[in-house]
């Protein structure tokens, strides 16, 4: 009796000590936990922030919640089925930034499997809460070299230009209500607007507060980003270090495959002219994927659109947009890129299938890329309220109201696109898109 009582008392004291360490040292507590895909479907990147250094960056994960829970409580002793991955933390390199980023790669994961995970450091016990994620469908024998051609249905949330201005808190609440639906989130640039108060190096307080608010989203599904003009403070280093995209701050473009669909992220903040590194990379990536899978969906995204019709400089002035269409647009046409997602103008717009300003085919038989702009979640600069009239022929739907979009890949031939307004949680625009073959 006494022995039993004694040992459980010891356990209580021990747990108390562990909790106490966690609570008493806020500076080593992991904050803003985020997931990201790599180009290999059997991998996942997990990243977070701490104010102070705490040894190596560690991720402990398991297929069962109880195994991981007892393992963290008993400080690593009992778990056979807990795997640990580690990396070196990194300081932020700008003088005005503090703290460390942690970016850990998990590999050899199994397909369609849920993993529970905690993150923390070695020198003291300071774990995050337990989070979980689910991997995609893939063949363990081929993985990255031969991605799935078969589509496994999935659902993603899409927006750009979020920041934390008017409307933002409602969009975040709206997203959180719907998070059970989503397998990933695409944030197409202009993330926190932390350069907004003319802080050239970016205001880290704004950046961190923004990411804290999004943690219930970013810790649950991969949060895939592309650089926007408000993310380029100190040379995209903070951006790349924070989000752990499968790219570098010098070459911030990448592609990955998810459940049978090819995604390609283009940096509109980097040079896109022919013969530049990025252009050659886009061409090679699309060519290679199309050779492998001539009929599969390709979804591209970047911050700046080249079809948009608000009364705003970027949309009114043709020159730069025409240049993007002449370079990237011709690759999209040649390699049959089905959908292009962007932000930059603070409105919502959907086009018909279009190429060189001409509608080609329709949603049942697309002969060109369908373009979407979703700059509406709410940021410090407000909405772009005025549209160009007459409405261009290629513009199918446009709104200036707060909300975000969702894209549901149903199967090899059908995608459902929807724009969700925050007010009354209404679906304001909806379109089925059938797979087109346009070269
Ligand atoms: C480890 O996991 C496998 C597969 O989930 C299970 O069969 C096995 O019993 C587990 N082992 C322990 C010690 O929990
Ligand atoms: C971060 O910077 C501090 C202060 O310069 C230094 O002591 C520490 O070793 C650095 N940590 C890493 C992981 O580079
Ligand atoms: C992968 O290869 C192994 C060994 O060759 C084989 O047993 C297994 O069935 C293969 N798995 C799939 C999903 O094809
Ligand atoms: C968002 O902010 C507005 C204005 O401050 C407020 O009226 C509204 O209740 C907030 N919504 C949420 C979900 O916090
Ligand atoms: C950074 O943002 C915080 C929070 O909004 C603000 O209190 C602070 O003054 C800003 N710093 C600078 C240098 O603008
Ligand atoms: C694909 O999804 C669409 C929309 O739900 C459906 O009409 C169509 O029959 C499906 N195609 C296949 C091959 O299942």
From TrEMBL:
SUPFAM superfamilies: Metallo-dependent phosphatases (SSF56300), Purple acid phosphatase, N-terminal domain (SSF49363). Residues 30-135 form the Purple acid phosphatase N-terminal domain. It holds the Pfam family Pur_ac_phosph_N. Residues 155-348 form the Calcineurin-like phosphoesterase domain. Residues 368-430 form the Purple acid phosphatase C-terminal domain. CDD domains: MPP_PAPs. Its EC number is 3.1.3.2. Residues 1-24 form the signal peptide. Keywords: Glycoprotein, Hydrolase, Signal. One of its GO terms (molecular function) is metal ion binding. It catalyses: a phosphate monoester + H2O = an alcohol + phosphate. The keyword Nucleotide-binding does not apply. InterPro entries: Calcineurin-like_PHP, Metallo-depent_PP-like, MPP_PAP, PAPs_C, PAPs_N, Purple_acid_Pase-like_N. It is an enzyme of class 3 (hydrolase). Belongs to the metallophosphoesterase superfamily. Purple acid phosphatase family. This is Purple acid phosphatase. It comes from Heterostelium pallidum (strain ATCC 26659 / Pp 5 / PN500) (Cellular slime mold). The lineage of its organism: Eukaryota, Amoebozoa, Evosea, Eumycetozoa, Dictyostelia.
